[in-house]
Structures are given as structure tokens and as C-alpha cells.
Amino acid sequence: MSVPFLGFGLGLRTCYFDAIIDTRPQVDWFEIISENYFVDGGKPWYYLSQIKEHYPIVMHGVSMSIGSTSPLDMNYLAQLKRTIARVEPEWVSDHLCFSSLGEFNSHDLLPLPYTEEALIHLTARINQVQDYLERPMIFENVSSYLNYKQSELTEWAFLSELHQRTRCQLLLDINNVYVSSRNHKFDPMTYLNAIPTQAVAQIHLAGHSDFGTHIVDTHDQPICEEVWSLYRQYTQNRSPINTMIERDDNFPELAGLLQELNLAKGIAPSSWRTYG
User: Fold this and answer.
1) What is d(CA 244, CA 239) in angstroms, rounded to the nearest whole number?
2) What is the architecture, at CATH level 2, of domain 8-274?
3) Which H or E element spans position 126?
4) Which pTM was predicted?
5) 215 falls in which pLDDT band (50, 70, 90)?
6) Cα separation of 246 and 219, whole Å?
7) Residues ≥6 apart with Cβ < 8 Å to 211
8) Which site among 35, 120, 155, 193 is 20 to 30 Å from 169 CA-CA?
């Protein structure tokens, strides 16, 4: 599976609906949160129907809990499949994590132990989801605030092996890599360079909150210089990868996000801007 290169996109959030429709900004594509469109109508669909007339749309979920040991939530997957049919996205992604177990829901994206057992479990679950949805899925690395004693692999070796077994592509969140590298004291470029380039379908760039002893992936701050530096190093001499600015709280004016989007375009190799 390989997704098309669409260019440089933004996360579509409700506070920007009117500005996007009124100004038609120079954005190559938008990413929506899948679960926000599980309803049949209402404000999200009213605006999305207008925006998707002019921009490609991709879907990004937060609730699949692909790593859980509970059975897959088939009601959730049915809602997702209906929404995919209606949106007709370029691709669909979620997070490589677990967030629920039985009736318990953490409302957070929790990391997995990096073990052979987890690889076997994920491979089976991903195949089941893709068979049901009748399309490939993409999964994002999450930020991490704990390590498991049971882990047998590094996170980057785990992701590379998962791609090898499933051929499932990754959404590489560079801010999440940076957050985890600070919290667990590893070299973020070691992580980034270990992921096969062909495994990466999309990049997320976002901000975080620094609490001194640890940093948290809050998506409520501008992208920091360290993350921009990692993006600069990572993108050099690589084929074009879809890149998106992600903001989920403490929203600036749309112009502020467009400024970050233009910075990403300026940092990426010039060939990415003329590709296709």
C-alpha cells in the first residue's frame, strides 16, 4: 500500500470552519478526527461538505484501541466504515496504542510493551480491521511517559518489524518522537533514521508542554525549534512525505497555523514543493 503525496496539510478543527470557507487558504489537504463525524448530520457535516468540495480529506481516529486485549469493538468499526464511505478520504489512520480494556476507558493513548507477543497480537488485529474496512490502515506512534520492564525491543525496532509483518504504513509524529526521547533519554534521530522511509505515509508536526522533569504531548503550543530541527534533518534526501500541522487546543488565528505550514514547506526539500 502507498498513499498519494498530497503535500502539506492542516488538522481541520471547528474553530477554523468559517475562515477556511471564507478565505480558501493555500492548504493542500485537511485531516479530520474520525469520531467527530460519526453522527448523521449537524455542524461538522454541514461545514465538511463544503470544505471537501475544494480540498482532499484524510481521516484520523483516536478510539480504535488497536492494542487492547479486549475484542475489537465492532460497533465502533461499523460506524467508522459508514463514515469512510461518506467522506471518501484519501487514507485513514489511528494510533498504535490502547485506550480501553473491557468497560474501562482511559481517555488517553497508552503505549504498548515492545514484545514479540505484542507484535503477534497487533498483526492479527490490524489484519482483522483492514479486512473488515476493506482498505489499508495507517497507524501513528504515540508519545510515551513510561517504559515496560517486559519490552524486548526499542520502539523504533518494534515499529519497523510491525511494518515488515503487516505492510501497514506509519503516521510518523515527530513531536511524539521528541517528547518520548526527552522523557526516556534516547537520541530522536536514531529513532527516525531506523524507520524505513517507505513505511512512512504521513508526518505530524505539533507542539507540547515542558514541565521540566518531563514533557507532555498537549498540541496546544507552537512547534518548538527542536522539533523543526528534527524535521529538517529527517526530510533531507528523502522522497516526499505528506506533512501536517496538528493543533488541538489554545488555538491561534488561522494565519498562525498557516505560518507554521509555510515554515514546514520552507524546511522540506525544494523537490517536495514541486513534486508531481
Assistant:
1) 16
2) Alpha-Beta Barrel (3.20)
3) helix 116-133
4) 0.94
5) confident
6) 7
7) none
8) 35
pLDDT at residue 240 in the model: 97
Q: Show me where the domains of the chain are located.
A: 8-274
Helix axes 254-267, 225-235, angle to 10 degrees: 40
Grid cell of 181 as nine digits: 526521547
Question: What does the pLDDT look like over 254-264, one tens digit per residue?
Answer: 999 999 999 99
Q: Report, as an integer, the average pLDDT of 243-251.
A: 93
CA distance 129 to 175: 27
Task: Indicate the residue type of 187.
Answer: D
Q: Give the per-residue pLDDT at 106.
A: 53
Which residue, 109, 93, 111, is CA-closest to 218? 109
- β-partners of residue 183 are none
How far apart CA 205 and CA 227 sit, in angstroms, is 8
* HEC assignment per residue over 68-121: CCCCCCHHHHHHHHHHHHHHCCCCEEEECCEEEECCEEEEEEECCCCCHHHHHH
